[in-house]
Specification:
Blueprint lengths: L5 H10 L2 H7 L5 E2 L5 E3 L11 E4 L4 E4 L4 E3 L1 H9 L3 H8 L11
Antiparallel strand pairs: 1-2, 2-3, 3-4, 4-5
């Protein structure tokens, strides 16, 4: 496996907007008055939205899970993959493929 450097990770983070990745995970997001996008957290059952998504910063955070991060971390959590696999998914490589092989 080729070690990841900062450049491919940065490219992967900017390749897909966080709001697109979150909505592709079957999560509806809506904008609050002057605030971030909000949705129901996919990592636990809830009735009220506790997951703000800030597209301008590329970050998400769940107040119930006390977990959050960038688009790479969201893909890691939602797909149950490792950091290098999440970067590859965001970069458009097929799941399970590793660059340089």
């Amino acid at each position: 496996m080729t070690p990841l450097t900062d450049a491919p990770v940065a490219e992967a983070r900017h390749a897909r907007p966080i709001e697109d990745v979150v909505t592709e995970a079957s999560m509806a997001l809506w904008r609050t008055a002057g605030g971030p996008l909000k949705g129901l957290c996919p990592f636990h059952d809830e009735q009220a939205p506790s997951l703000p998504v800030r597209p301008e910063r590329g970050l998400w955070y769940c107040f119930m899970c006390c977990d959050g991060g960038d688009v790479v971390k969201f893909v890691e959590r939602i797909r149950g993959v490792t950091f290098p696999e999440a970067v590859a998914i965001l970069a458009g490589q097929p799941e399970g493929s590793e660059e340089g092989q």
